[in-house]
Amino acid sequence: MTKNILKIEDLNVAYGGIKAVKGASLEVNEGELVTLIGANGAGKTTTLKAITGTLPQCKVSGHISYLGQPLKGQSSFNLVEQKLAMVPEGRGVFTRMSILENLLMGAYTSNDKAQIEADIEHWFTVFPRLKERSAQMAGTLSGGEQQMLAMARALMSHPKLLLLDEPSMGLSPIMVEKIFEVIRNVSAQGITILLVEQNAKLALQAAHRGYVMESGLITMNGLAKDMLDDPRVKAAYLGEG
Ligand SMILES: Nc1ncnc2c1ncn2[C@@H]1O[C@H](COP(=O)(O)OP(=O)(O)O)[C@@H](O)[C@H]1O
Ligand SMILES: [Mg+2]
Question: How far, in Å, CA of 87 to CA of 113, rounded?
Fold first, then answer.
């Protein structure tokens, strides 16, 4: 039996008079890497913010359940306790703290020192660039390294669902490849991921399933490998055909 981790039904979000999300539904099952692709302004970030309950000024309707429980207006502290982790657009690492200190912040709900140390060692094997630089201030890292740190910090909380908002944004092609390598690796470890991306090709190549969002609507969804062959996806998002 596949276990439903996240289920969004008929989500609507309006910023004042502007409808950003218009009846979107999507779900993520345990162990899946699901990608939500779409152009700039489609409503992807708004959808993620609806999940984390960080849309204070907005009209939000619809139903979101996480681990079978309705999610509504949770504080971010509760989200960490519930093992829901988000790496926002633009990363948001603590720039005046070292890499190691950032990782410890990711584990702030735990008192188990041995476990925390083991987790840091584990994630250092996935993110070797961070290990080499563990005493360095996060603010001195490159954009790609900061993205890796933001992901590693989120993973320190043992998330049951990891939300990634455009991890490849603004990175060099080589760094983009590296970030996707890491995302595949994390997914292969069984961690459930919802990946928002504008880089549709790499996202669909990494994901099990995908959704396309256009102007606040989910217009396509399916197995990622089928979507890569879909003429509409090819024309609109892959620059082919
Ligand atoms: N804080 C905000 N106030 C008003 N409109 C917003 C705000 N944030 C996003 N929007 C609008 O909502 C729509 C969806 O934005 P967003 O969810 O950020 O899209 P995406 O992440 O797909 O680029 C866009 O038209 C955007 O201009
Ligand atoms: Mg966005």
Answer: 24
